[in-house]
Amino acid sequence: AQSVTQLGSHVSVSEGALVLLRCNYSSSVPPYLFWYVQYPNQGLQLLLKYTSAATLVKGINGFEAEFKKSETSFHLTKPSAHMRDAAEYFCAVSQNSGYALNFGKGTSLLVTP
Amino acid sequence: DTGVSQDPRHKITKRGQNVTFRCDPISEHNRLYWYRQTLGQGPEFLTYFQNEAQLEKSRLLSDRFSAERPKGSFSTLEIQRTEQGDSAMYLCASSPSGTVNYGYTFGSGTRLTVV
């Protein structure tokens, strides 16, 4: 079974600082990996996805993530945080197309002025 | 197409009542998924359809939960004899079929409160 672990339920950064949200996965087969963002009282929006092509994946809103098989990691980064980035971020893994996404517990990102 | 639509956005019901939620997926997506999200947790997979066929339902939380997608378009999720523990956000997602998983498009969810 596939699973992800998000390290840190809450992360606080200053506006303009680097954002780093950590995700480690467990999978017995090559995984599909995703990052989603959720704003209050809304559904989830796909930020980016890894589908076994390039290991460095660029997404929307200036976010990117790097797939590191040796570390079983898929950490999310953004060079400079904006106030509008404050939200809940979820890492997810899937075995294959059409299979369920297994989500982590999420990391709440707080951006301070 | 405006994305995945869920109705209602909010539902308050008394314990023991039945509730039904509707999901309209993106029209060209033939896969549809239901998830539940409780406070402070990530979404939890419940069930999924390919067209009208329900291909996975073993993770529905109990026999009080059921889902249908009769014509392969919209879907409904019903909870019978609701309990306070059913209070959560119920999310629907859809995706196209294919061999590569490009991720799912989620709706805004239905927030259920059981009092």
Q: Find the structural class of chain A using helix and strand composition.
A: mainly beta
Percentage of residues in helical conformation of chain B: under 10%
- Compute the separation of the termini of chain A in Å: 41 Å
Number of DSSP-assigned strands of chain A: 11
Task: Give unreliable regions of chain B as ranges.
Answer: none
Averaged pLDDT of chain B, please?
91
Quaternary state reads heterodimer
- Strand count of chain B: 11
Instruction: Give the rounded overall mean pLDDT of chain A.
Output: 91
Largest sheet of chain B, described in full? 7 strands, mixed
Rounded radius of gyration of chain A (Å): 13 Å
Largest interface: A-B, 25 and 32 residues
Distance between the termini of chain B: 35 Å
The general outline of chain A is globular
SSE string of chain A: EEEEEEEEEEE
Q: What is the CA-based Rg of chain B, rounded?
A: 13 Å
Q: Helical region count of chain A?
A: 0
Shape of chain B: globular
Write out key terms for the chains shown.
heterodimer, A: 113 residues, 6-stranded mixed sheet, 5-stranded antiparallel sheet, B: 115 residues, mainly beta, globular
Q: What does this protein structure show overall?
A:
The complex is a heterodimer of chains A (113) and B (115). Chain A has strands at residues 3-7, 10-14, 19-26, 32-38, 44-50, 56-58, 64-68, 73-78, 87-94, 102-103, 107-112. By secondary structure, chain A is mainly β. In chain A, the strands form 2 sheets. In chain A, strands 2, 4, 5, 9, 10 and 11 form a 6-stranded mixed beta sheet that branches. In chain A, strands 1-3-8-7-6 form a 5-stranded antiparallel beta sheet, with no helix packed on it. In chain A, a hairpin with a 7-residue loop joins strand 9 (87-94) and strand 10. Chain A starts with a strand and ends with a strand. The mean pLDDT of chain A is 91. Chain B has 115 residues and is mainly β. Helices cover 0% and strands 48% of the residues of chain B. Chain B has no helices and 11 strands. In chain B, a hairpin with a 6-residue loop joins strand 4 (31-37) and strand 5 (44-50). Chain B starts with a strand and ends with a strand. At the A-B interface, strand 4, strand 5, strand 9 and strand 10 of A face strand 5, strand 9 and strand 10 of B.
